[in-house]
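Intended use. Records such as the Aminomethyltransferase entry shown here are meant for training and evaluating sequence-to-structure methods. They are not intended to support clinical decisions.
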Amino acid sequence: MTETTAPDTADSDSTQRFTALYDTHAELGASFTDFGGWQMPLKYGSELAEHRAVRATAGLFDLSHMGEIEVTGPQAGAFLDHALVGKLSAIAVGKAKYSLICAEDGGIIDDLIVYRLAEEEYLVVPNAGNAATVSSELATRLAGFTGTDADGVTLTDVSAQTSLIAVQGPNAEAIVRAVVPAEQGDSVTGLRYYAAVRVTAAGVPVLLARTGYTGEDGFELFVANDDAAGLWGALRTAGEEHGLVPCGLAARDSLRLEAGMPLYGNELSRDRTPFAAGLGGVVALKSKENDFVGREALQAAKDAGEGSTGGQRLVGLKGLGRRSARSHYAVLADGAQVGEVTSGQPSPTLGFPVAMAYVDVARSEPGTRLDVDLRGKAEPFEVVALPFYRREQ
């Protein structure tokens, strides 16, 4: 990077985008990388140390490149049932649900989290690289939504005004509780997984969610851009006695891989359906009476047994040697290609190489021995159930 101060480009068409915390990261000596057009911290020092801090104590992440789309109105739930594959109208107020937005042909456009903040208020959080696409796609689907009149739903993309900070790890609860008023402490400790509540943190309004992408307990805090730097600083101060470490995207990627969590562009894409990706349970074919985008194609994929009796299935691979597989490496059986690695690297927590890959269903059962072509040399791997790592409860 040649710039040390981020320009005010949040609402511009610049090819480079910067979060409200960019200057903070630069002051901490972060190494930056492009991610979906955003300049994001890759690491601050040792990515291995950052990974291990999240598993042992706590890590602090800037996720402000993620999107935030408000969906409000008396028919908001019905519209999301139409636009997404899950039954979002069934979410209780204060809870969240993992879902997918699929194309008419069943291909995955993005995976996302939907929060129900009030009876007629939802928040859709898509991935950074797909935020604009999801916002546009929801607007298109609203224009064709015939379940209600045009005044029943309002879409508001608040991505450019919103920052997102995550605290992940065994000590996350103690750190977050330290920055909220004493009278709101129970709102932190009593918050369940995949739930959200509005609190005051470091003196500013925050939407606090108990969600994350690391396999550890943790929280994600949605806050206005102007308040992001102050909240980040308060969390760092509160975390000093709890081993809190600022973490970049490198650690986030290794953590999510250990936890068997898919990444859009790697495990998920327009070329894959939820069934092949092992996410068939997210698709509400039985519980939703009305039509939704992609329903016909997804029903056909399920009826054909896609991901269970034919085609390919997403699996975990445990390395039996020391060398790691990487994205796009060929998976082999008896020398013939039967799949392709989507993500792979050494596991800092487990001490052996791990990978996710799409392989032919006939080769997808746990215990199956396969090879990965590592630059011309076959390296042994074994199919294992996901996730690789599961935290102690």
